[in-house]
Every structure is written in C-alpha cells, then in structure tokens.
Design brief:
Blueprint: E1 4-7, H1 13-27, H2 35-47, E2 52-57, E3 62-72, E4 80-92, H3 101-115, E5 120-126, H4 130-138, E6 142-147, E7 151-157
Parallel strand pairs: 4-5
Antiparallel strand pairs: 1-2, 2-3, 3-4, 5-7, 6-7
Length: 163
C-alpha cells in the first residue's frame, strides 16, 4: 500500500478538502447539488479548534482524510455529549478505493479516539453507500436506528474506556 497516515495540520486542509470533493463527485457520478457549500462547510470544520483530522499520504499525494470532533446534542447544535465523539468525515480518493486505505485510516482513528478517552464514536452515512457500510461494520460499528431521509447513524463503543 505504501501509505503513511498522520495527523493533519492547517497546511493539509486544502488537500484534505480535495480528497473529500473528489470522492463525493465519484460516488455521486458527477451530480452533486450544493457542492460549493458542502466543500466550504468541510473546510470550516477542518479548521475548527474542536476538530482533529488525519491525512493519508502515498508519497506523491494525499489519498485519504478523516476528521473527528466532539458529539453534540440537538443535531450538532447543542452542548457536547460527554464521552462521545463524531467521525464526521472519512474519504479515500476514488482511484484508490478497494485497497484497504479506508480500513487503515479507520484503525488509526479508533486508536486515537481511545487515546483521547472517548467511550463512544458515532457517524452518519448514506443509506445507499454499501462501501462505507462494509467498512464500518468491519470496524465494529452498527446502525443505531436513528435516520434521516438520506442517512443513518452508526456507533460503536470503545473498549477499555468507561462511558
């Protein structure tokens, strides 16, 4: 694989956003309403002091990104929920799908979540994104039953961390 996963910094934001954008364009077959707005929302998220993120480099370019922030009540607008975090984004560039990069990034995310003392990690994924469902299921996530018209929430407990 030849991929190095490391903490992202402010200088990695543009490259991480590009990974997000390329992956979404491929999955949506080039049709993506509100693309510019979503891209700017991700950029703001990555620059937030409450967010930490990872990038995966293959020596030539960024090939994946993931970001985590505290989980908040009221659809993200309320106070932080103690002991819980949100895996807000995890994307791999489309030409590298199926190489295990997403799984490797997930492993590092979960190790860091545990190191930071979170007892639970949550995420939201589209109902029709079978690729992400396989990845998250293989890493111990399960649907919580909470849904929107397009997405479902998944969660997992972190072993060794008291809730």
């Amino acid at each position: 694989m030849g991929v190095v996963i490391r903490s992202g910094t402010a200088t990695d934001v543009d490259a991480a956003v590009a990974v997000f954008e390329r992956s979404n364009l491929a999955r949506r077959e080039g049709v993506w309403p509100n693309q510019a707005e979503r891209v700017e929302r991700v950029r703001g998220h990555l620059l937030s002091p409450a967010t930490w993120f990872l990038v995966a480099d293959d020596g030539a370019a960024r090939v994946a990104m993931a970001s985590v922030c505290p989980l908040r009540s009221d659809g993200g607008a309320g106070p932080e929920i103690p002991g819980a975090c949100l895996l807000a984004y995890l994307y791999v560039v489309p030409e590298r799908w199926g190489e295990g990069i997403g799984g490797a990034v997930s492993d590092v995310v979960l190790a860091e979540v545990q190191r930071r003392g979170y007892a639970r990690v949550h995420l939201w994924t589209h109902h029709d994104n079978e690729r992400s469902h396989r990845l998250y299921r293989s890493h111990g996530f399960a649907p919580t039953g909470r849904t929107t018209s397009e997405e479902g929430e998944w969660a997992r407990a972190i072993e060794g961390v008291a809730s």
